[in-house]
Amino acid sequence: MENKGDRLRDARLAAGFRTAKAAADALGMRPTTYGAHENGQNDFGIDEAQIYAKKFSTDPLWLLTGQTVSQKTAIAGDFIPSNIIPLREVPNAEIREKVDTQGHRIPVYGQAVGGVDGEFIMNGSVLYEVMAPPNLSKISGAYAVSIAGDSMYPRYEDGEIAFIDPSRRVRKGDYVVAQIRYEEEGPILAFVKKFVRHNNDELVLEQFNPPKELTFPHHNVVSVHYVAMAGNA
User: HTH cro/C1-type domain: which residues (predicted)?
Assistant: First the structure.
């Protein structure tokens, strides 16, 4: 004879949960607690039935008795507990990690006027600081650069801030800030461009205005860092 545990298992399977553990995870329950209800080790009442019914899209009364509300009302003299209809809403709020409203600030590098290809001297001078966006708030060494000129318009506009993630691997098609040193004791020049390739011979970047590729010998490349996002600070 089918019991509550059998009906609970049937409802779970009908809802697409192949295992009791998958259902328990979706319900936010311990697998052992749910499993004990399904295998009949422990009984469950109306409160649990309504939670299961909501998740499995079934009737809580059917889980408890094997009959639906309409079947029960068709039987003269039957009394349906008032706490079964309507279904009680199950709280769905989740407690997550505390949001740090303070955040931390990162330096912005750049200069007022860029070079012919929008490059600027990366000499460590900080223009100002801005609040790190959430996706960079825990990245060590994150920084930002001020876009100079329109060499990458319409992707980036003059004066926009590009936020840099130095820890992320760069792939073809990414936008990057490449730091180049032409002479051993010379200044480091920074270029915000589209990444094409980088190998033991050369670094190749794409520029939009005017459209062209910029090629740098590998031995002149100091670093190539990923542009995570950009916008107005």
Answer: 8-63
